[in-house]
Amino acid sequence: MKVHVDTDKCALHGQCSFAAPEVFDFDENDDLVYDATPDDSQRAAVEQALRACPVLAIEIQG
Ligand code: SF4
User: pLDDT in tens for each of the 62 residues of the chain?
Assistant: First the structure.
């Protein structure tokens, strides 16, 4: 699966990293970093992150 985050929309709320901590994280500058091609075992967590994102910045492709 492929994940894309619209970083223009992302307001760094962090809900995605609670929902899918193995895919979404923050670096030492508090910027969002994420795995753009997570294993399919992460699908449910990523879908939860997508629903949790308050600005709808997360997109799942495939
Ligand atoms: S929940 Fe949405 S706005 Fe918040 S850090 Fe994640 S992608 Fe960005």
Answer: 999 999 999 999 899 999 999 999 999 999 999 999 999 999 999 999 999 999 999 999 97
| Alpha carbon 22 to its chain's center | 9
- Ligand 1 pocket, 56 CB below 6 A? no
58 lines ligand 1 (CB under 6 A): yes
Question: How many domains does one find in the chain?
Answer: 1
The residue range of the domain holding 34 is 2-61
The CATH number assigned to the domain holding 48 equals: 3.30.70.20
